[in-house]
Amino acid sequence: MGSRDLRRIYGIDVKTWTVFEETEAPGIPWAAASTGKDLWFTLGEGPEDDRYLRRYLPEKGFSETERIPCPEYTGSYLSYDGSHLYLSQWYKHRILKLDASGNILRVIDIGLEICGHVFVDGLIYVLRGTEQGNEDWRIARLDPRDEMPEIEDLAQVPFPCRSLAFDGESFWTNHRAANEIISFPMPETQTR
User: Fold this and answer.
1) DSSP string, 129-159
2) Which of 147, 72, 141, 140 is nearest to 107 (CA)?
3) pLDDT tens-digit readout, 135-151
4) Residues 46-80 pLDDT 10s
5) CA–CA distance, 130 with 117 (Å, rounded to integer)
6) Would you state the torsion angle of the CA atoms of residues 77, 149, 92, 8, taken in this order, to the nearest 10 degrees?
């Protein structure tokens, strides 16, 4: 879990809701994705909040050498397909598949603002909608293996959400206005 205001990241034991690790981040932590033994963070650095991808090694900290500028220095949420990081650009309404150097391999248009995404069984689940007004968000699903992925809205999210994770059984997101972490089951839909 990251705190924008405190510029810190926290390892949380979800069984006891206790902090087992706390680290100062070298910027504003916007998002993270696990790539197995390590994590990659999107961090905002400097007065312009330029976005970089930074590798984090549990119990060792942030790498001093693995710092990759995000395309156009913008980006927020991250997901990982087992081989590549995917970075969303909120206001450009797109998710970028990146290579190990941060070069764009593919652009996936989502059609709306993006406030989180995660891979589940090869599919991307994405929180998409609009922030302005009443914060209208939906959880949607798409298959990135399709040349032109069809985006299927699955359910309305009844609160202003940020970030999306999946633990193998449930989704997790942040209810920003209530300062809470929320867990919910996979929306029931027709099988593909």
Assistant:
1) EESTTT-EEEEEEE-TTSSSPPPEEEEEESS
2) 147
3) 999 999 999 999 999 99
4) 999 999 999 999 889 999 899 999 999 999 999 99
5) 15
6) 0
- Does the predicted model carry a pTM greater than 0.70? yes
Residues with Cβ within 8 Å of residue 165, at least 6 apart in sequence: 118, 171, 172, 173
For residue range 7-50, what is the model confidence (pLDDT) as tens digits?
A: 999 998 988 989 999 999 999 999 999 999 899 999 999 999 99
Among 35, 43, 52, smallest CA distance to 101 is for: 52
Chain position carrying tokens 């689940």? 125
Pair 43, 29: CB distance under 8 Å: yes
Cβ 70 vs Cβ 52: under 8 Å: yes
Q: Which amino acid is at 29?
A: P
